[in-house]
Structure prediction request, 134 residues.
Amino acid sequence: MGWESKVFTLAEVSEHNSPKDCWLVIEGKVYDVTKFLEDHPGGDEVLLTATGKDATIDFKDVGHSSTAGAMMAEFCIGEIDTSTVRTETKYTPPKQPHNNQDKSFEFIIKLLQFLVPLLILSLAVGVRFYTNST
Prediction:
């Protein structure tokens, strides 16, 4: 592979976050991409924002080519100590209650409690106007 198997902590990698010294963590490996910043097709800002964390998801989300993966080998300087990397917790949405038949029956009752008096009031107003006009 062309790199020594040195193990870095995330704190050590996080210190290298400038355009003159930029390291990234992708798939458990540490890459010194300082020399690649100017050549990166997405610009150097993309790489600089990925420092200080595990950038694996960012790297995969972009959809890099297999050529990009092969180019990474020359920038690899070691591995990350996985115990120092914060694991992302996956978001699970709260469970929605199922539409219960009892609840829909209660809704119909409440709707009728609103509409029936409204209908009676409308009927009373209509009768009043009808009787006054004759």
Notes: The chain has a mean pLDDT of 82. Residues 19 and 34 are 7 Å apart (CA to CA). The first strand starts at residue 7 and ends at 8. Strands lie at 7-8, 17-18, 21-26, 29-32, 76-80.
